[in-house]
Amino acid sequence: MKEIKTVNDFNFENQTALIRVDFNVPINEYYEIIDDTRIQYSIPTIQKIISEKGKIVLISHFGRPKGISSKTYSLKFLTHYLYKKLKINVFFHENCIGETVVKKVNELKNGEILLLENLRFYKEEEREDKNFAYELSKLGDIYVNDAFGVAHRFHTSITILPKFFGKKKCIGLLMKKEIQLLGQFSYGKGKRPITALLGGAKISSKIEVIENLIDFADYILIGGGMSYPFIKMKGGMIGNSMIEKDQIIEKTLKKIFFNKKMNIIHLPKDVIIADSFKNEANTKISPIHSIPNGWMGLDIGPFSIKKFCKIIEKSKTILWNGPVGVFEFSNFSLGTRLIAKSIANTTEKGAFSLVGGGDSIAALKMEKYDKKISYLSTGGGAMLASLKKNKIKILPGINAIK
Question: 187-389 belongs to which CATH class?
Answer without folding.
Answer: alpha beta
